[in-house]
Amino acid sequence: MPRPDVPDLVERARRGEARAVARLISLVESGADSDAGAADLRAVAAALAPHAGRAHVVGLTGPPGVGKSTSTSVLVGALRARGRRVGVLAVDPSSPFSGGALLGDRVRMGEHATDDGVFIRSMATRGHLGGLAWATPQALRVLDAAGCDVVLVETVGVGQSEIEVVALADTTVVLLAPGMGDGVQAAKAGILEIADVFVVNKADRDGAAQTVRDLRHMMSLDGGDGGCGWQRPVVPTVAARGEGVDELVAALDAHREWMDAGGERTRRRLARAEAEIQAITLERVRARIGDRSGLPRLAERVVAGELDPYAAADELAHSVTGR
Ligand SMILES: Nc1nc2c(ncn2[C@@H]2O[C@H](COP(=O)(O)OP(=O)(O)O)[C@@H](O)[C@H]2O)c(=O)[nH]1
Ligand SMILES: [Mg+2]
After folding, report:
1. DSSP type of residue 180
2. Could you give the domains of the chain?
3. Ligand 1: which residues within 6 Å by Cβ?
4. Residue 177 C-alpha to ligand 1 middle, in angstroms?
5. What distances in angstroms separate CA 59 from CA 91, 174, 175, 297, one per listed residue?
6. Mutate which of 70, 75, 243, 248 to test ligand 1's pocket (most atoms within 8 Å of Cβ)?
7. How remote is the CA of residue 68 from the centroid of ligand 1, in Å?
8. Does pTM top 0.90 for this prediction?
9. Ligand 1 center to 129 CA (angstroms)
10. Nearest residue CA, atom 12 of ligand 1?
11. Pfam families per the record (predicted)?
């Protein structure tokens, strides 16, 4: 297969050409598949570097079924109505598919499919450990460079992905619904700390008002801001009917303004870049250990009592870094 002309693709993506955007995201997704894929990924990363950093990246997380996809879809509508260009990344670490959309999401997003101010993409990890960690930031850069004002990242709120969405987003929205992941459960799951904005979706259901009160009470106990100066709002919504979406957009805009005013957005981006560099480096070290280190021989010497594991680690580190 001929190698893609990456600078040309980036140029076309910057003009908003949907096919070029899709192709670039495919390239970063397949970066782990082969040496050629890795070379393309690096070429894309290099070509995008000067063009990213403008979009407001909003992560939406929460338990399955809480209404993340529905909320994402109504947010797209509300943001488009304000004239903003919107990107959507649906990130599902458990999905066996890649490149294609999750069917439900595609159906719901159908109304936006013909709007050239919207780019929608589903991503999966294909079981690659840490796959999300490197592919998703690059996909975000593609959407950013393509002129998206806002990029919405929907992540299944289970296990590590909650943490990963924080590493990706400028603003993290945690969705809860009455009867599933109420305030107390959420506190146990450690989901409260990561939120910049809370949404209590399914506000048409019994118990929603109580969940909103519980959360607001919890926020008031720690001053609401975890000492950082941002009062974390709790927004009730009925995403299925589009209710509360204007309040949610207002909360997202307010958070972005607060971040820009105090330098928080830059701090978060620096932390994110550090995490990304670290992930890439660790991945590289791991690959070298697998490829051509003397690990099996070192293990034999540890088992034989000739070497302790710390000394063995020193030798291994020396052999993989060349220092
Ligand atoms: N009653 C009610 N149902 C909703 C609301 N928002 C979404 N749903 C429904 O909840 C189900 C799960 O929604 P979905 O957006 O797929 O959740 P996700 O798994 O978090 O992405 C769907 O059947 C939605 O139609 C809401 O505000 N009220
Ligand atoms: Mg969903």
Report:
1. B
2. 1-51 (no CATH), 52-262 (3.40.50.300), 273-321 (no CATH)
3. 64-70, 201-202, 204-205, 238-240
4. 10
5. 10, 8, 10, 45
6. 70
7. 7
8. no
9. 29
10. 65
11. MeaB
What six digits make up the tokens of 1?
Answer: 């297969």
Q: Report the largest interatomic distance among the alpha carbons of the chain, rounded to a whole angstrom.
A: 70
Instruction: Please give the chain's pLDDT, 323 residues, in tens.
Output: 678 899 999 999 999 898 999 999 988 888 767 777 788 888 999 999 998 889 999 999 888 888 999 999 999 999 999 999 999 988 765 544 433 333 344 444 566 666 678 898 887 655 444 555 567 888 999 999 999 999 999 886 545 544 455 568 899 999 999 875 555 565 556 677 788 999 999 999 999 999 899 888 888 876 555 557 888 999 999 999 999 999 999 999 999 999 999 999 999 999 888 888 887 788 788 878 876 678 999 999 999 999 999 999 999 988 887 75
Q: Is 121 left (phi over 0), alpha (psi -120 to 50) or beta?
A: beta
How many residues belong to the chain? 323
Question: What are the phi and psi torsion angles at 138 (to 5°)?
Answer: -70, -40
